[in-house]
Amino acid sequence: MIEFKDVTVRYPTGTKGLDGVTLRIPRGQFVVVVGLSGAGKSTLIRAVNGIVRTASGALSVDGQRVDGARGRALRLLRARIGMIFQSFNLVERSTVLNNVLTGRLHATSWWRALLGAWRREDVELAFEALERVGIVDKAYNRASTLSGGQQQRVAIARALAQQPAVILADEPVASLDPPTANMVMRDLQRINRDLGITTVVNLHFLDLATRYADRIIGMRAGRVVFDGTAEEADEAAFEQIYGRALNAEDLLPGPVQVDLDADTTEPW
Length: 268
Hints:
four-stranded antiparallel beta sheet, alpha/beta, 9 helices, 10 strands, 268 residues
């Protein structure tokens, strides 16, 4: 469980990234956080693994305090939290398999990592993660040869290789086309349902949020202004979050040619 109790984040400029946020995210829930740029979405996610420091309040993951965690305690906490970024953060000159294996660094001695002498069980975990996102056949390809959607799937596999209790995804589909964005979201949803990993995703596109989320959290000026199910997130709720009516920029552009119920993957 992720728990925020009156958490405030204050940046050096004096701006409040979070302003007295109180939230409880149960284990295994799939949550999508929405809001305008600067609303606090990324700050909320990055506070969970200590990338952003809190100024006040209490923040914990499965009972372990994040606020105030330093050194070894913070490293152990981050080992249990997989992070997925918009920019993929892959080593493009390295193979897909080696990129995924970096998710095992927290459990690997420095000399094994330096020499690439990975344990057999770690390699098996990496292959299992790649198989789960449907690109195991790309294991020995250089990451630079993959499409954007495939690279994001490698990033998801890397997070899975950590064997995390929580997955955080910060705008994971912002740079992808509509069909690929849906496939990546479907991967995250399936992983959440199959493995029971608590998943928190920041999104800009509201139709994706309502399509995939168990729960939607709306942020505005660092505060939670909406917290409910996808069914409850109607146009009135989004006006509360965005301070205006919906427009085309809030929806995923273009037609979506993807079978959301299919159990197959495409080699985009």
